[in-house]
């Protein structure tokens, strides 16, 4: 279960990752000679945010200090964080309501039936940790080996990173996997008391070199709709539009529906 020191460490690492990706000229500073470290220096960021360089250093080191909302807003402005990154920053700093570990209620029959009603469009219902709680036959066909009938639930993140066939199904595997990991981090920050998240993250770090390399980069991303290219077992590479809906009474549950619009996105496999 995440502890407060863990959150301070995550806050410092998140700030450092964003500081190192911001070039001085992007922050309005002149480039002066060779720099030993990428991005802004701590002193430069503190100056632009109007705070003490020593105090900011303590914050990045995970010291036991508390940043005000005013300071966090200033840091987010200088670091050019988008809305979702800023929300993540505030949560790590303890300025957002932290959801406690929820008792995992069983999926109601009405909700579980929805993907079945959407056949032949691939559809499934996932929870916050990307466990697949309900799916239809088209989804099982499109994502082979995702639904295995094992003792634990099928999990989309585990499938993407640890199931070799996923690299063939996801035509653009790396950007899709990186985005999924960023969304998992966002979800984990919203549920700091839920032990399922650190268990899943530890499993990914132990078994996936890519997850182990990308997790320290502290990318965050909300769940969203969009388009992705998937390799259908019988029809080859197809560009799918996918739409995500949150259940009103349980917003941590998401219904995802895929539609291929009848088109293909490449040669058949």
Overall description:
The protein has helices at residues 4-21, 42-49, 53-60, 69-79, 83-92, 109-112, 114-117, 137-142, 156-162, 166-169, 173-190, 196-207, 209-214; strands at 123-126, 132-135, 226-232, 236-246, 254-259. Helix content is 43%, strand content 12%. The protein is built from 13 helices and 5 strands. Helix 2 (42-49) crosses helix 3 (53-60) and helix 2 crosses helix 4 (69-79). Residues 98-102 and 263-269 have low confidence and may be disordered. Strands 2-1-5-4-3 form a 5-stranded antiparallel β-sheet. The protein has 2 domains: 4-92, lambda repressor-like DNA-binding domains (434 Repressor (Amino-terminal Domain), Orthogonal Bundle), CATH 1.10.260.40; 109-259, 2-Layer Sandwich (Beta-Lactamase), CATH 3.30.450.180. The termini are far apart. It is elongated and about 60 Å long. A hairpin with a 5-residue loop joins strand 1 (123-126) and strand 2. With 269 residues, the chain is α+β, with helices and mostly antiparallel strands.
What key attributes describe this structure?
269 residues; alpha+beta; Beta-Lactamase; 2 domains; five-stranded antiparallel β-sheet; 43% helix; disordered C terminus
Helix percentage: 40-55%
Span from first to last CA? 43 Å
| CATH C-level category of the largest domain | Alpha Beta
Q: Point out poorly predicted stretches.
A: 98-102, 263-269
CATH topology of the largest domain: Beta-Lactamase
Largest beta sheet: strand ordering: 2-1-5-4-3
Helices and strands, in order, run as: HHHHHHHEEHHHHHHEEE
